[in-house]
Amino acid sequence: MISYDRETGVFHLENGLISLVLCVREDEAGQKELLLPYMGAPLSDPASCLYLAKTHGGASFDTDRQARPYACPTEGRGDSRPPLLCAVDGQGQGCTELYFKDCAIVAGKPPLPGLPASYVEKDSEAETLLITLGDEQTGLRAEVRLTIFAGRPIIAESIRYRNEGGEPLTLTNAGSACVTLPGRYDMIHLHGAWAKERSVERISPAALTRGISSVRGASGHEHNPFAVLAAPDATEFSGECVGAALVYSGNFAIQADENAYGTTRLTLGLNPRGFAWRLLPGEDFQAPEALFAWSKEGLNGMSQAFHSLMRQRVCRGHWRDRARPILINNWEATYFGFDHEKIMTIARAAANAGIELFVLDDGWFGKRNNDDCSLGDWVVNKEKLPKGLDGLAREINALGMKFGLWFEPEMVSPDSDLYRAHPDWCLHAGSRRRTTARQQLILDMGRRDVQDYVIGAVSTVLRSAPIEYVKWDMNRNFLEAGSEALSDGRQGETAHRYMLGLYRVLEEITGAFPQVLFESCSGGGGRFDAGMLSYMPQTWTSDDTDAVARLSIQYGTSLCYPTSAMGAHVSAVPNHQVGRVTGMRMRGDVALAGNFGYELDLSAQTPEDMEEIRRQVAMVKALRETTQRGTFTRLLSPFEGNVTAWQFSDEKRVILCAYRVLNMPNAAPLRVRLHNVPQGTYRASDGSLITGNDLMAAGVPLQFGWQDFSSIVMVFEKTA
Ligand code: DGJ
Q1: 3-state SS of the chain: helix, strand, coil percent to 5?
Q2: CA 376 to each of CA 367, 441, 484: distance values in angstroms, whole numbers, following the listed order
Q3: Could you give the CA distance from residue 250 to residue 501 in angstroms, rounded to a whole number?
Q4: Of 303, 311, 313, 310, which Cα lies nearest the Cα of 676?
Q5: Residue 315's closest CA among 75, 94, 119, 456?
Q6: What is the 3-state secondary structure (H, E, C) of 636-663?
Q7: Which one of 73, 102, 384, 569 is at 20 to 30 Å from 543 when CA atoms are compared?
Q8: Is 374 inside a domain boundary?
Q9: Which has the closest alpha carbon to 303: 175, 190, 179, 197?
Q10: Rounded to an integer, what is the distance from CA 199 to the centroid of its chain?
Q11: Whose Cα sits closest to atom 2 in ligand 1?
């Protein structure tokens, strides 16, 4: 999969689905630069693309440099496009020149120490190219690591920086990956805010730098660490797309820079804003991993490549390939106002409907009856739960359901025993005011003592009762992000040290409780990224549970992330976030396209709704193998019209889900054509037979009910 021609200095990573070409070229001073002229469709001969490494446009030195496709562009050496690296020396000089030193090709994919990353189970699944670049003056080394996976149109890239000089350096930019594409591209990204995460935005080619980022200490609600460069004519089903996702959950930046010579440079990595990392002689700094997916079959092709990689080689552990349990969560049913009996009343109704897991949300610990106290005091509130968690969990187990629990371990309330004992443990900037949000402060996860406290506190609770699921929440973002544990001059390390500390905590806890199903959450979907998925195979998609709003949120999320990663619950009406009243059927049909659950008072439903809930639970059990692990294809976008449709397919069946928001008088008949249907004959629910070919060629009519908020789920079971 990886070849290197020493004579020409050309590296070719190829697997029949994607090619990436690098070349070592002498620059004007006779130094060996590393260029990355090509990533895209598989090439038979890498020499065919080498013209892309040469001068573009004008002949002057400056012009040439501006358009060169550097693999690891650095600050201050004639290329004014966004760089990956800035290493400042003791004189404050940040100009670095990286030249080729050596290379190696290894089987498989080495892990990234301390950071989440994609992985292989056998060395035959991938090959990795390691290229070392070096700056002679400072002694800085950059080891560029590129992995190509067999059978996937995916490349993983990361960079490890090492100070082999004699003087300390300060990294003010330590990026992960850079590719340059010849041409002008639309940039597609996912943006939003609390309760409206991951709207799809498509920006036309622009001769400027288009960028998304976070300084929130989490990947954030606002932008997701994922972007696409799409050919302007690319659609869901055709055209060239390069997707890029960062395996990281904290401050990040992704930039697409288009220059006057018609090339687009994409850079990904930690956000340089607020970042400054002291790198002493002999020390390493590992930048997070970036994943690239290439498709010539439009956005669906790119998404499907990401879905299968995320599901199979980013997510890990016991639950990775297992059917996810149908859950009932009490948050929207009770908020903080519950006691043992109320929980048991909901649990009995849930068990009766066939639900498999009860999740007790916020409010079970300390003296927490609202959100102004007790975070950090992870001790059960015996006034609400006199039988303790153990007593409650065992009664729920006796109903035939598993028991799960909410935590927000990275936080501390000013009104808590933890804060009173350790006021220095939260992030803060010296003696400045400590700004609260949702009346809470953030623990300084970069500190070893804080990490050990969190590991101990969560583990003690998990050992105290039969807890088989954890919802790991994080409800506010960084302000005054300083650390009392870092000596002067190192405050710019706080945000990344927080993430390294959090990842250590997650590795320890998920490793110590391998059978527990972990779901991450951050005020809904404020930390929905590949980094968290590496520890927790599912994420609460959004605090907006309205079925109509969820169409856009789930559609946007699916650009990068698989449905097996998306928590999706049926909630009460009028909906608590938007007041909309949709039917139980539509709410269930939307939640079906994720990790299905309920978030309402099941003991207060009408008999008709309970009957529908029982039907839904049975349907999800019958179909979840396909909805959680089949191929997901977007058909009609909620961002473009009144009807949304998507489809799941595997060797057993095809499931078509369609949703119409508003009814229309005298509307034209609607049909939708399916995609990716394996060949064969299928039986529809009315018993009729249809071939896979005809489902794609003729399509099927969509006969919605005579009302607003109508949905259809059609299942085609394969007969032969
Ligand atoms: C935010 C989450 O997204 C909600 O689902 C819920 O768990 C609350 N936090 C609890 O405080």
Answers
A1: 25, 30, 45
A2: 11, 10, 19
A3: 12
A4: 303
A5: 119
A6: ECCCCCCEEEEEEECCCEEEEEEEECCC
A7: 384
A8: no
A9: 190
A10: 14
A11: 523
What are the residue ranges of helices labelled H in 376-493?
388-398, 417-421, 448-464
299 found inside a domain: yes
Tokens of 577: 């976030």
pLDDT, residue 369, reads 97
CA of 37 to the centre of ligand 1 (A): 46
| Last residue of one domain, picked from the residues 313, 348, 380 | 313
pLDDT single digits (tens) 51-75:
998 755 454 555 567 778 999 999 9
Residue 538 CA to ligand 1 center (angstroms) comes to 15
Bridge pairing between strands 32-40 and 154-163: unpaired
Residue nearest to atom 9 of ligand 1 (CA): 523
Q: Bridge-partner residues for 295, per DSSP?
A: 241
Burial class (CB in 10 A: 0-12, 13-18, 19+), 113: exposed
- For residues 46 and 3, what is the distance between their CA atoms, to the nearest angstrom? 10
Supply the pLDDT for residue 79: 82
Give the confidence band of 427 by pLDDT, cuts at 50, 70, 90: very high
For residue 510, pLDDT beyond 80: yes
Instruction: Check whether 523 has a pLDDT greater than 70.
Output: yes
pLDDT of residue 553: 98
**524 CA distance to ligand 1 middle (Å):** 7
Whole-model pTM: value is 0.97
Task: List active site positions.
Answer: 473, 543
Q: Which two tokens stand for residue 166?
A: 């004699």
Q: For 426, which DSSP code?
A: B
Range of the domain at 276: 2-313
How do beta strands 595-599 and 223-230 pair?
Answer: unpaired
Output the pLDDT for position 488: 73
Please identify, by atom number, the ligand 1 atom nearest to the C-alpha of residue 599.
Answer: 5
Distance, in Å, from the CA atom of 58 to the CA atom of 261, rounded to the nearest integer, reads 9
> Are the C-beta atoms of residues 145 and 137 closer than 8 Å to each other?
no
Task: Report the alpha-carbon distance of residue 391 to residue 368 in Å, rounded.
Answer: 19
What distance in Å separates the CA atoms of residue 720 and residue 718, rounded to the nearest whole number? 6
Does 479 reside within a domain? no
Kindly state the tokens that stand for 481.
């992000």
Pairing of strands 595-599, 566-571: parallel
In angstroms, rounded to a whole number, what is the distance separating the alpha carbons of residues 184 and 263?
A: 6
Q: If 0-12 CB within 10 Å is exposed, 13-18 middle and 19+ buried, where does residue 163 land?
A: buried
> What residue ranges line ligand 1, CB within 6 angstroms?
331, 361-362, 406, 473, 475, 521, 523-524, 540, 543
Cα(153)–Cα(132) distance, integer angstroms: 25
Q: Which of 439, 425, 282, 286 is nearest to 375 (CA)?
A: 439
Rounded distance from Cα 362 to ligand 1 centre (Å): 7
Structure token pair of residue 550: 């969820």
pLDDT in tens, 682-714: 999 999 999 999 999 999 999 999 999 999 999
What CATH number does residue 667 fall under? 2.60.40.1180
> Which candidate, 457, 452, 484, places its Cα nearest to that of 374?
457
Of 313, 338, 355, the one marking the end of a domain is 313
Whether residue 163 is contained in a domain is answered as yes
pLDDT band, residue 260 (cuts 50/70/90): confident
Residue with tokens 């190192």: 490
- As given in the structure block, the two tokens for residue 431 are 């003696």
As for how many domains the chain has, the answer is 2
Query: Would you say 186 and 241 are in contact if contact means Cβ atoms under 8 Å apart?
Result: no
